[in-house]
Amino acid sequence: MATYSEWNSWLTDYFFNCNKSNKEVFLAVCPEVINEIGQINNIKSPDDDFINAIRNCDLRKPLHSNMIQTADDLRSEHKNTSYSGDPKYVAFLSFLVYCISISPNLTGKNQIPDLEKKLNESGLREFYNDRVPGIWGALEKWTRINQFEKGRFNAIHIPHYKNVGYAFRQALFRKSDHKLIEDALAKSKVSAGLELDKIQARKILANLPSGTRLAQLFQKSTDTEIKEYLIQRVFDVYNTPQKLDKKTVIFRWNCRLNRLNNSYSGDSFNERQTAKSQCPV
């Protein structure tokens, strides 16, 4: 069985690396990702191994009554070193996202009872609300202090989900969903040279194959925040095209710059400067 430290290192390298420089990183941990990492590292049963590694964390101290205390202590130690070196709490945050990703109800609202069951611990709610948001914030600060060299993480939550919303936001969009949206974009009017707008993005999501998890999430959700988030992710896929001809890539990139040029916020200005230097062709 791999240790917590080993899983933490694997997950950190998987999500945060030089290929992600200046790009937003989503900690979209799901069975697909865990199995991919496990196969690379010759783990026979990656899902079980990952859960057992969290339960039996080799970095846990005797005074810690639960895993949340351990993760918060790792955050505090990282802060005391001015966030030098890789964070040791990525595996813990990944576990929070993973638990939501395997939940059958697609809401994340039962996350704390699910965590207690998987960790064989109790009384986590108070610790979760007090400490987990700060651990997400530390991950964001680490990427900022390192000038986004390994990626840019944003500790943002889905408002209606309070503290659970941080992990829920990461779990909503998986690695395989990128290809699903890219295929849908290729079949839509957008591929014919029309600029993507919000109406088109909504149609892309509404017309996804009904059996897919992303389609069910978009169609069944009554939360406006979730729908808006998924629409934004369609724009993200549109702005980072893969395996497309050069003409289409340049067209999409110019459309993105035009949208940013019409916005006057500080964040848009910074994104505009980054976008100008990162056209993928």
Could you explain how this protein is built, in words?
- The N and C termini lie far apart (43 Å).
- This protein is globular.
- The model is unreliable at 264-269 (pLDDT under 50).
- The chain contains 14 helices and no strands.
- With 281 residues, the protein is mainly α.
- How would you state the average pLDDT, rounded? 84
Largest sheet: none
How much strand? Answer: under 5%
Helical fraction = 55-70%
**Helical/strand content category:** mainly alpha
Terminal Cα span = 43 Å
Discrete helix count: 14
Return the string of H and E elements: HHHHHHHHHHHHHH
The count of DSSP E runs of length 2 or more, i.e. the number of strands, is 0
The shape, in one word, is globular
Low-confidence stretches: 264-269
Radius of gyration: 19 Å
Helices and strands in order:
Layout: H1 4-15, H2 31-40, H3 46-55, H4 67-80, H5 90-101, H6 111-119, H7 124-145, H8 165-171, H9 175-187, H10 198-206, H11 213-220, H12 224-239, H13 246-261, H14 266-276
Helix pairs in contact: 1-5, 4-7, 5-8, 10-12, 13-14
List key phrases describing it:
281 residues; 60% helix
Task: Describe what is shown at a glance.
The chain has 281 residues and is an all-alpha fold. It is 60% helix and 0% strand.
